[in-house]
Specification:
27% strand, 9 strands, four-stranded mixed beta sheet, 245 residues
Length: 245
């Protein structure tokens, strides 16, 4: 099975999401169907981690019929495009991520009191100790004094996931983005919303010159730890200690 980091490196090579035509050669069938498994997982991975990508494009040699069939089975379509590569003519195949069956949603930055208030029912599932008024006071103060930002996944007009994040400077990390909050509505979990929100934060961080995104997670939240480490490629680097005064 190809690793997430390998796919990240491959996809980052182009904003149009060109996939190296030698995937089939790198992961030969040999009865284990590695290439087929990778291609099956790829659309969900791209939707989750690369929000701006609308389609995936690859080139396959006209004589490589086995690879052409593999890509067709994975949902890639020959739209008639051709180009010449090092080993001859290539068929350009496309996979449009906006087709039926894809996640239809948007990510929106929440920038005022009414929008923050609308996010409270979801945020409350993570910050159970807060009532609505105290929550709004903290968000307003954090936005004013610490450049705290909040973003939400909106699906069919409903807020289904929320994140809060802000810039920080420390001697350990330098300039970085700290993810303060990340929660998906309990009725909409395991749909990739949390991953898309975290990918959104990473994208915002990169576009604004921050090279690190960091966060903390409660010791009891084992599922969240697996999500950060195994799905989102975060490293566990320290414990967070707290003393109430």
């Amino acid at each position: 099975m190809c690793s997430m980091k390998k796919w990240r490196q491959a996809i980052y090579k182009s904003s149009a999401c060109h996939i190296a035509a030698d995937v089939f050669n790198r992961f030969p069938p040999a009865g284990k169907k590695y290439a087929r498994q990778c291609l099956k997982q790829l659309p969900h991975f791209v939707r989750t981690h690369f929000l701006e990508i609308e389609q995936m494009v690859l080139g396959v040699n006209t004589e490589n019929v086995a690879a052409q069939n593999l890509y067709r089975q994975a949902g890639f379509v020959d739209e008639g495009g051709r180009m010449f590569g090092k080993k001859g003519e290539l068929i350009i195949m496309h996979y449009h991520l906006g087709k039926e069956g894809d996640i239809q949603m948007e990510i929106k930055e929440l920038a005022n009191r009414e929008e923050w208030k609308a996010a409270f029912p979801v945020m409350k599932q993570l910050r159970k100790h807060l009532d609505e008024e105290h929550y709004l006071q903290l968000v307003e103060e954090a936005a004013e004094k610490s450049d705290y930002k909040m973003a939400a996944v909106i699906d069919d007009g409903n807020i289904v996931a929320v994140t809060g994040y802000m810039p920080m400077i420390t001697l350990y990390n330098g300039r970085f983005i700290w993810v303060c909050d990340l929660v998906t509505d309990e009725a909409h979990r395991s749909k990739g919303y949390g991953a898309r929100l975290l990918a959104y934060v990473e994208k915002q961080a990169g576009e604004n010159g921050y090279g690190i995104v960091s966060l903390s997670s409660g010791l009891q939240r084992k599922d969240a730890h697996r999500f950060y480490e195994e799905k989102m490629d975060y490293d566990k680097v320290s414990y967070v200690f707290l003393k109430r005064l």
